[in-house]
Each structure stands twice: as C-alpha cells, then as structure tokens.
C-alpha cells in the first residue's frame, strides 16, 4: 500500500488566499512549505480547494434505510464550514467578493506556487466547489463549472496542476456544470489533467440534494468507471462522504470499496 | 484513512485490497519528517 497524496487542511479552503486577506502571504508560504515537504517525502500529489467560506450543508437527511446523510437545500442554506470555522449569511466576510476578484487572487496564488510544485515534483489537483453554486454568503466561487476549470488550467499552464474530480460535486451541480460528469472525464482525461477522483453519488442535482450510498443516487456509477477506463485514468479513486451504514464507518467503507472494485472489473472486462 | 492508523485499521484497509491511500493532516504536523514517517508506515509489512 502506498501513499498517493497528502492534504494539509490548514492550506486548503483558506479565505486568506481566496480573498487576499492580511495573512495571505503567510498562508501562501505555508502552502509552498507543504509542497516542498511532500516532494522531500516522495509523495506525488495534494488536493487544493479555493473556497473562501467552506463547504455548505443543511441539516442531515435520511437516505436509504434511514441512514443519515449530508444534505443541501438551497432554500435553507445559511452556513458554511471549514474545520472549526463557520461562515454565515448574508455576508460571510463583511462585503461581497465578485468573480473578478476571486479570479485575480487565484491567478496570483497559482502563479506563485506552480514553480514550487514543479521543482518538488508534486501534482496539485483542484477540487470543485461544494456545492458548486455561486455566490454563497456574498462570495463568488470559480470552480463550479467546466468552463471555470478550463480557465484555471490555462492560467496555471503547468503539467503539475490538474483536477481532483469530485464526482459527487459534479453531480450536485448537474446541468449547471456545463458538461456532464462523463463528458468532463473525457475532456479532462484527454488533456491528461485527471489526477484524482472522488467516487460518490447524490439523489438529485441542485437546488436540493442528499448524498446517497454509491449505488442509490441518480448517477449510474458504472458510466463513471467506464469513462475513466476509456480515458486510461492513471490517478487514484477514493470513496467519499459515505452515509453511515450499520452504525459503523467500516461497513459503509467496505460496501463502497467492494462496489467500486466490481465496477472496475466490469469496465476492464468490457474494454 | 487516519494518518495515524492502528494496526487494526491497516489490516482492514489491506483486507479490502486497497493499493493507494490519500491522507490528511494539518499545520501542526505537516512537514517532511511527518510525511516520510507516514509513508514508511503505510508501506510496512502486511
């Protein structure tokens, strides 16, 4: 068993970086140290997310068998969370931050860290906004569409910057993403930009979704696995946000991994 | 998987046939020595 990637939650989803707050330079230097440390340890990958006010959810809702699951209902959304911090409507950071400002801050950030990632030999996979809805709490989000990703990858202009494709987020967005999850896999795969995949499912796209067991959402996950096989995906797939099964986190993990392995076998057999 | 798994955690992951893992930490532990120590742990004997 090998470590493909290591994340550092203190340099991920950082409002200082996304909004150019006073401790922004300090956070960027911390991110560079993270990249160099990964390179020194021989770990090839890390995930980055560019959300200023965290991951937004509403009260958990039941999925199959009354299992409690993460949910988001746009009509009731009031709070985002990242680690111990909470962010509340109407304005999470005191004023509105538009797309142009968030793009400027991303551009400055990625231009600074790309040379370090390249020198360290570390891949950065950018995770979609969760949920992929902009703005939230008055702050624009720029990784909520396929077009946003294309723009970001062009700005980064580096073989070390690619996509952490959270299929769950992509399904949350639905038509708003501009390409379906399968189309996105083909497009990013052809560009050799798919670094990591989060394999999960939801019951509906926005404005209201509940996360589901892997076989119980609106997506036929075989189509995802088949598309990954078709683009000769060479990164890592992980199960993600598994609803609690049998009141033991290992049960749902084993169920999901087993399902993924069966889909992979079928995709390989049918290729 | 926790970056500091128990022997039982490691066995569980190996029993599922997992080949690669992705771990998370925070700024209190991030650094080359910690990352290297986790790498050694995950590649230890089954």
Descriptive account of the structure:
The complex is a heterodimer of chains A (271) and B (46). Chain A is an alpha/beta fold and 271 residues long. Chain A has helices at 15-18, 24-41, 99-120, 146-156, 167-173, 181-190, 221-230, 249-270, and strands at 2-8, 45-48, 55-56, 58-63, 67-73, 79-82, 85-88, 123-126, 161-166, 194-199, 201-202, 208-212, 236-239. In chain A, the strands form 3 sheets. Chain A has a 5-stranded parallel sheet. In chain A, strands 4-5-12-11 form a 4-stranded antiparallel sheet, with helices on one face. In chain A, a hairpin with a 3-residue loop joins strand 4 (58-63) and strand 5 (67-73). Chain A is globular. The two termini of chain A are 26 Å apart. The model of chain A has no long low-confidence stretch (mean pLDDT 97). With 46 residues, chain B is of the alpha+beta class. Chain B is built from 2 helices and 1 strand. The longest helix of chain B is centred in the last third of the chain and has 11 residues, at 32-42. The mean pLDDT of chain B is 90. Strand 1 (2-8) of chain A pairs parallel with strand 1 (20-25) of chain B.
The amount of beta strand of chain B, in percent, is: 5-15%
Greatest chain-chain contact: A-B, 33 and 27 residues
Largest sheet of chain A: 5 strands, parallel
Taking all Cα atoms into account, the compactness measure Rg of chain B is 11 Å
* N to C succession of SSEs of chain A: EHHEEEEEEHEHEHHEEEHEH
What is the arithmetic mean of pLDDT of chain A? Answer: 97
What's the end-to-end separation of chain A, in Å? 26 Å
The helix fraction of chain B, in percent, is 40-55%
Q: Which assembly state applies to the chains in this document?
A: heterodimer
Main beta sheet of chain B, described? Answer: none
How much helical structure, as a percent, in the residues of chain A?
A: 25-40%
**Helix-strand pattern of chain B:** HEH
Task: Say how many strands of chain A there are.
Answer: 13
Content of β-strand of chain A: 15-25%
